[in-house]
Amino acid sequence: MKISVNWLKEYIPVTHTVEEMANKISLTGIESSPVELGTELTGLVVGHVTSVKPHPDSDHLKVCMVDIGEDEDVQIVCGAPNVAADQYVIVATHGAHLPDGVRIKRGKLRGQESNGMICGLDEVGVPAKYMPEEFENGIYVFDEPQKPGTAVYDLLGLKDKMVDIDITPNRADTLGMRGAAWEIGATYDEKPNFKKPELNADKIKDLNEVDVEVEEKSLVPDYLLRELKDVKVGKSPLWMQRRLWNQGIRPVNSVIDAANYVMIEYGQPIQAYDLDKLVEKKLVIKKAQDGDKLKLADEDKVLNHNDLIIASGEDILGVAGIVNGTVAQVDENSKNILLEAGVFDGASVRKTAQRHDLRDDASNRFEKGVDNGIVSEALVRATQLVDEISGAKEISKEIVGNYTEAKPTVIEGSVSHINHLMGLELSTDEMVGILDRLGFSVKVDGDKITVTIPTRRWDMAIEADLVEEVNRIYGYENLPNTLPAGMETRGGYSQKREFSNKLRDVLLGEGMDEVINFSLLSKKEVDDFNTLNTEYTKLLHPMTEDHEYLRNSLIPGLVRNIAYNQARNNNDLSIFEQARIFARPKGQTRPNEIEYLSGAISGNVISDSWNTKSQKIDFYYLKGIVDEVLSFTNADAKFEYEATADYANMHPGQTAKILANGQVVGLIGKLHPKYQKDHNVDETFVFELNIDALFELNEKSIKSQSAPKYPSVSRDLAILVKSDVENAQIISDIYENGGKYLNNVTIFDVYEGKNIKTNYKSLAYHLEFLNPNDTLTDEEVEKAFSLVKDSLVEKFNVEIR
């Protein structure tokens, strides 16, 4: 909410700069910043167009003579289609500065001298979407004669100074100028002075042309109307228009502008209807039926049974508290007007506005809450403005659809208790003075105070709220500085967090980059990698269809990252994410949050260089990274990789489950070629590890030991074995039969192809034997080596080469 200083001066004295005011208000707990419009503008004056003639060398340019308050009229070439003689316009003189660094200089346009520029509002700083529609494609023309040469800044509010208040949800009372005046006045110990609106008593008649029925009274506690007869709709005055466009509202006509002006002034939205366009002279506030349509200027909105509407007969006039349709829209031909002021349930308004993407200034106020104590007064003020500007002949009495008495809140407190909570020693008079500055009524009975809160501050209910208000206005910066008392607690991470951070550091050490993705996915993405076979968790009110479900895997997010980068020619990628997934067992309402670590690598892991050749990512490169991560878990567990084709979007020949003591703790493999094509990614390998499951594994007991004093003995073993026999099976069997001195086994060669039987492969292993307490003899080594070979022949029918 932008608080205009010039407008604020109508309520309280303002002698401070906007910078000082913004800082002072921020110290009371409402974040504020100064806004000064048009600081770069110079040389803008009122010009009177005395003559217009066609440009001799152009079909669209015109040569204008303009009085700008100097001894002689100046010649200006203008291309605006609406320029005409006897207009009062905005002129940027020679040397004038406009927004975005534009500077105006004398010059010639197709041979004709031009000594300035006749401007449109958008050219002097008013955004095109907020200026009156009639001037959208041309220059701005004043409705009334102005003195030529007069600076235009004050006339058009081009250099208005404002305080931009960042409203918190509980302080919606400052969404109106009057509420803001109370807040800022209290900050400077000034009470605002408001003039109560009054109607011309001679015009008020006992009209009864419109009936109103509120079916959903629980959602509409207040609903009031007034009729205005024989109104002449036209333009609103310039003072009103400039205040509206500086608030980001486009002036439309004298009736709609008056309604919007009251919304900014009081914080109470007002709606207007053309009474003659109603099919029935009756308004009904009710729930819509599924399939009902609201006609808007640019589209139709299909409503459902949760939407609260205002209807006249079969016509839907608008969605309550949000927007009016075009059915009974007020225009320049309207004569009889119906003004509406109401209070609508904030939750209902918020859900409907979000559902149909119709959030605006009115819905924002109803969502946060409006003061039901000023609904009638705000309606009187809107009626007064319409009458003053558009001249109504008759005005109805207030028509009541529903009314709830506005009762102030009464809070009891204790001066000593409030002082104790704040750590101050304010006297009763000081405390009462602060509350009085806020417009609260206070009764004192010894130490006890009874505070009556006006209805505009519906956010207050208990004594703690009084403490906050006294604190704010007294000044947080004035509170005494004290150190906290009590036991100190030692900071640090939990064991589980330390564990996950260690695994994260391993991947960073491997040169991978960490990413952070949204935890919300589309329906297809949760289908793609539901490796846990969990139920899906859908949001009630998702932002978009792409963010409907809580993620059940981190892989879809990583694939999106890969696709995004590769589309921008960044092809060599190595990324990971450490975050939670959401798995919901069948029948469970809330999902379980499980910590996961996932990675994705695509492209080359080594680039071309003068002494190296590029190397593409493969399964075993990624497996090496995963092995490194698993080694840092320090788990007393046997980790295995089990080939699988269970995952539809993973390559069936290059994917494995990761097992710890037979329990699945993750997966590793290559994305399925079709999945890669569908998601526009090159060959990509991924892995996923369940950190929670890894953390639960028993830790190994590590004992230090001295370096071996005796030499090791090695043997190489080459075998021919069927292709379906896994390397892990061979190594496991070697360890099982290699005896107590077998220290290490590594595979150093794999070959399939020429000179090898079909469906067979050649594997070569290096076995290392070591006795830490004595020198091994050839006899001991050969005995163990023979046992290894015999076992392999017997179990796997291998051929020793």
Describe this structure in words.
Helices cover 25% and strands 28% of the residues. It is elongated and about 125 Å long. The strands form eleven sheets. It has a seven-stranded mixed β-sheet, sandwiched between helices. The chain has six domains: 63 residues, Phenylalanyl-tRNA Synthetase, Chain B, domain 1 (2-Layer Sandwich), CATH 3.30.56; 115 residues, Nucleic acid-binding proteins (OB fold (Dihydrolipoamide Acetyltransferase, E2P)), CATH 2.40.50; 202 residues, Phenylalanyl-tRNA Synthetase, Chain B, domain 3, CATH 3.50.40.10; 70 residues, Phenylalanyl-tRNA Synthetase, Chain B, domain 1, CATH 3.30.56.10; 201 residues, Bira Bifunctional Protein, Domain 2 (BirA Bifunctional Protein, domain 2, 2-Layer Sandwich); 88 residues, 2-Layer Sandwich (Alpha-Beta Plaits), CATH 3.30.70. It catalyses: tRNA(Phe) + L-phenylalanine + ATP = L-phenylalanyl-tRNA(Phe) + AMP + diphosphate + H(+). This is Phenylalanine--tRNA ligase beta subunit. One of its GO terms (biological process) is phenylalanyl-tRNA aminoacylation.
